[in-house]
């Protein structure tokens, strides 16, 4: 633990930051690791850390300075998807589903919405991706029979090693084919539509199911697959181009 704290100190003294607190510096370090811009091994290198900042700035179309300022911190504090941004392929692991009819199961849901509301929302989001990728989806009652298992959970949960962080920040995450499972953070204030301090389930589901179809994050601000949260009801042309290319449906 002492060594880690010392490492933080070395990095943050040498690498450029503009008027940020020690807490913010630590948050930057954690963010860059969590979302794929930096590995813990690379964090030992001042050069690698600066390169990670530049990759982040390039992804979010900020001036590429290698220096953290309030602009970077503002993006890092937004609600977002838990899947890393910085991948070698625009299409995640570059793997589409090899069958046309997929099954899905919905497990535990948020108490803030009814089972019917959650079911209809997931179905509508799946249908949008299905129309673009020429896929169909069938809901099944047993998760053992499902290609895609969907549920809400808090903190550490089954199915992966990445814990949710409570209200705010990470809203959900999904896996690429041939897994495709999708997890929502139970602690969010889920609603359907807009609301101050609330999170629209459909918008998050549409985004996360894009990962379940095989897509990684987009750098296009208005795209459904952009990593930070926004209300989205339909695919952007960037999303359509990506899914068409992956499934060869254009």
Task: Tell me what the structure shows.
Pfam families: Peptidase_M10, PG_binding_1. Ca(2+) 1 binds at residue 188. Ca(2+) 3 binds at residues 165-166, 185, 188. Keywords: Calcium, Hydrolase, Metal-binding, Metalloprotease, Protease, Signal, Zinc. It is a single chain. The protein is an alpha/beta fold and 250 residues long. The protein has two domains: 22-77, Muramoyl-pentapeptide Carboxypeptidase, domain 1, CATH 1.10.101; 101-249, Collagenase (Catalytic Domain). 36% of the residues lie in helices and 12% in strands. The chain has helices spanning 2-14, 22-34, 46-59, 70-76, 115-133, 201-213, 237-247; strands at 80-81, 101-106, 136-139, 148-153, 170-174, 182-185, 190-191, 199-200. A six-stranded mixed sheet has the order 1-5-6-4-2-3, with helices on one face. The chain has a two-stranded parallel ribbon with strand order 7-8. The longest helix is centred in the middle third of the chain and has 19 residues, at 115-133. The N and C termini lie far apart (52 Å). The model is unreliable at 1-14 (pLDDT under 50).
């Amino acid at each position: 633990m002492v060594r880690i704290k010392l490492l933080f100190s070395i990095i943050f003294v040498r690498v450029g930051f503009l008027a940020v607190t020690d807490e913010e510096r630590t948050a930057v370090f954690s963010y860059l690791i969590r979302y794929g811009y930096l590995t813990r091994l690379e964090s030992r290198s001042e050069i690698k850390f600066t390169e990670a900042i530049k990759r982040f700035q390039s992804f979010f179309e900020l001036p590429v300075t290698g220096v953290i300022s309030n602009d970077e911190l503002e993006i890092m504090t937004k609600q977002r998807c838990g899947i890393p941004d910085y991948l070698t392929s625009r299409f995640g692991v570059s793997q589409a589903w090899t069958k046309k009819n997929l099954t899905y199961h919905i497990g535990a849901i948020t108490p803030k919405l009814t089972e019917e509301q959650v079911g209809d929302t997931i179905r509508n989001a799946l249908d949008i991706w299905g129309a673009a990728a020429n896929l169909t989806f069938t809901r099944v009652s047993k998760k053992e029979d499902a290609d895609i298992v969907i549920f809400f959970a808090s903190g550490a949960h089954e199915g992966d090693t990445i814990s949710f962080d409570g209200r705010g920040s990470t809203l959900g995450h999904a896996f690429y084919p041939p897994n495709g499972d999708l997890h929502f953070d139970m602690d969010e204030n889920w609603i359907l539509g807009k609301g101050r301090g609330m999170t629209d389930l459909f918008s998050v589901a549409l985004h996360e199911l894009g990962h379940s179809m095989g897509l990684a994050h987009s750098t296009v601000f208005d795209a459904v697959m952009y990593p930070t949260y926004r209300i989205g009801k339909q695919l952007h042309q960037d999303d359509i181009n990506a899914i068409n290319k992956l499934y060869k449906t254009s």
